[in-house]
Design brief:
- This protein is of the alpha+beta class.
- Helix content is 18%, strand content 19%.
- It is built from ten helices and twelve strands.
- Strands 3, 4, 7, 8, 9, 11 and 12 form a seven-stranded mixed beta sheet that branches. A five-stranded mixed beta sheet has the order 2-1-10-5-6.
- A hairpin with a 2-residue loop joins β7 and β8.
- The radius of gyration is 19 Å and the shape is globular.
- It starts with 17 loop residues before the first helix and ends in a 13-residue tail after the last helix.
């Protein structure tokens, strides 16, 4: 396996600006879509309970969360403005345009919310997400976010390593993969109620990882961003963040985690297998069939167009941490 060394970020001129519009037009024609300063104290049940206490009204803004900032996850990267990260989204359950999730998820109800963990485990569990959140020592992880559409952001997420949740359920010897499933609620999620509005996806949205990927320290079960609870359009109340993979692997509004012996189906692979593989590792040398992945647009105040372009890093800049997971694999075959 030929893996490039990590390089500094700089401008490049590879992907034409028209690529993004071309992809949108093609997918829509097919009926498809793509889916603070000092260290804060550890989260405590009493403090977080006060912050989150009471049943919020629909559309209530995100609230602050206590968190820690481990030194190993604070790269010197310029953060994407919060208002940009909260308004430029792919969440096809609420529509296919980038502005649709912020507009149509505003009144999305996320309480109560349960998350089940089952399958090949000795101790299946069902968590009340909000009660569970009160007991966690949340960490802030500043990660690069790279979309398969060749744009990127840098986001400070809050969460806990997914490995902790999986270990608590005690995987059996048969467990080799981890499957994830998004809430199915067409009454709240307009894209699930309409194939036209939802990009032709067969809902609920599903995703998957190999068990070793899920257990990797970088893989984060995420409940917040920018020091607060997740906004609905960013996957409230709980989502997945896997920073070395394309963004569509970061399944949102999760209700079910299932450990399996066989590789689970994933939404985009099921919809267009020749374009979206199970692994979806960021790889600048393996292009999408219809555009280059060698560079990316850094999303700023003006959205995609007018933002600067930079070369894409192997494994999105996390090569040193994760390349060993794929040693000996043909990354063109396992894309």
């Amino acid at each position: 396996m030929n893996i490039k060394k990590k390089s500094a970020l700089s401008e490049n001129r590879v992907t034409p600006e028209a690529i993004y519009k071309q992809r949108r037009q093609i997918l829509q024609g097919l009926g498809l879509g793509l889916g603070a300063a000092a260290l804060s104290g550890p989260a405590s049940a009493s403090l977080l309970g006060n912050l989150l206490g009471g049943k919020p009204e629909a559309g209530e803004p995100a609230v602050p969360l206590p968190f820690e900032r481990p030194s190993g996850h604070r790269p010197d990267l310029p953060l994407t403005a919060e208002k940009v990260a909260a308004s430029y989204n792919n969440f096809y359950e609420f529509g296919t345009d980038k502005s649709d999730p912020a507009r149509h998820a505003r009144d999305f109800k996320t309480r109560p919310w349960t998350l089940s963990i089952g399958g090949e485990v000795a101790r299946p569990q069902t968590l009340d997400v909000w009660a569970w959140m009160e007991k966690q020592r949340l960490e802030e992880r500043i990660y690069r976010h790279r979309c398969v559409e060749a744009w990127s952001m840098v986001i400070p997420w809050l969460g806990v390593p997914l490995a902790a949740i999986i270990q608590a359920a005690e995987p059996t010897a048969k467990a080799r993969y981890v499957a994830f499933e998004t809430l199915y609620d067409p009454e709240q999620m307009r894209g699930q109620a309409s194939r036209f509005l939802g990009g032709g996806i067969d809902y609920p949205y599903v995703e998957g990882l190999r068990l070793d990927e899920a257990m990797h320290p970088l893989t984060l079960l995420t409940v917040g961003m920018y020091g607060k609870t997740l906004p609905p359009q960013n996957g409230a109340p709980v989502r997945l963040v896997v920073p070395w993979k394309y963004g569509f692997k970061g399944i949102k509004s999760i209700v079910r985690i299932t450990l399996t012996e066989q590789e689970p189906p994933t939404t985009w692979n099921r919809l267009a297998a020749h374009e979206y593989g199970f692994y979806a590792n960021v790889n600048p040398s393996v292009d999408h069939p219809r555009w280059s992945q060698a560079s990316e647009r850094v999303i700023g105040e003006g959205g995609l167009f007018g933002s600067e372009r930079q070369p894409t890093l192997m494994f999105n800049g996390y090569e040193e941490e994760v390349a060993s997971l794929y040693r000996g694999m043909d990354l063109r075959a396992f894309y």
